[in-house]
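Write out this protein's structure.
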Amino acid sequence: MPSSELPDCPAALIQPLRETLLALPSRPARIAAAVSGGADSAMLAVAAAHVARAQGIELQLFHVHHGLQAQADGWAEHVDALGRMLGVAVVQARVQVAGDSGKGIEAAARQARYAALARLAREHGVADVLLAHHRDDQAETVLLRLLRGAGLQGMAAMAAASIRDGVRYLRPWLGTGREAIRAAAARLADERGWHAVDDPTNADPRYTRAAVRTRLAPVLDERWPGWQAIVARHARHMAEAAQVLDEVAEADLQGLEPGPDRGSFSLAAWRRLSPARQAHVLRYWLARQGVAMPSDARLADLLRQLRQLHALGHDRQLRVEHAGLAVRCHRGRVWVEPA
């Protein structure tokens, strides 16, 4: 199908995708775009079709059918129609979202969606999946993380590229505003008759992100126009700061006489660090041992016990259980083992 048959797409939406793919270590043979049928992901698919064709990359559209809305079957058919318009294969996965997981329906749906995308990627030989998160999504994420008391890493919000379950997720539009994307989607509807679906949960304030979007964002829009760009820039600065602190933590860990597998370290060497660096390198080490990050209160208790243990001598033992694991200390060495 000649490129002229692709729907028009603004250069402002195409260029970030082109730059994202060119920045990869090597050009992928195939990529996928996650498409819900909404305006953002639909325009991501259109822009990706232009870039993939220009670079000789095979493109697929991944659609996850949550079954949470009565219209879900219609959305799946709508994505199929978009794929036909673009001349791109659409593959779908149906998921069951656990409503009683204790995480909330939003978190459960997100977890199910990523699991399904990873499964589709494995089945179809795709290593890179494009996501349509944009600058306004990033700003909302920063606000949500702030209100939940996230640390520096959390305030960095969504990364432009991240690895999850062996799949690299690419978010080329974190610097692109929602308004430009929605305007392009409206033009697509006018020119091709394909209208993006509208998920009612996006405007339902019972859902946390929708509450930010419908109740908090209008107030910010009125008082601080363009606040999304400012908050998204804050996320980039936090990501840079977090990277610097990780480099400091890595250097500190190297100075703690780590074991061959970095699974243990010297308590005496750790005790010589400043309190702030003690806490940071401990968080860094726990994360790299696959330990779920403890709450501030639990981490403070662990720090207190490690500091007291050192003061009382290396002959005393320590055992602190957390998330199915136990932090142990004996004869001056700290390590983690199954609880």
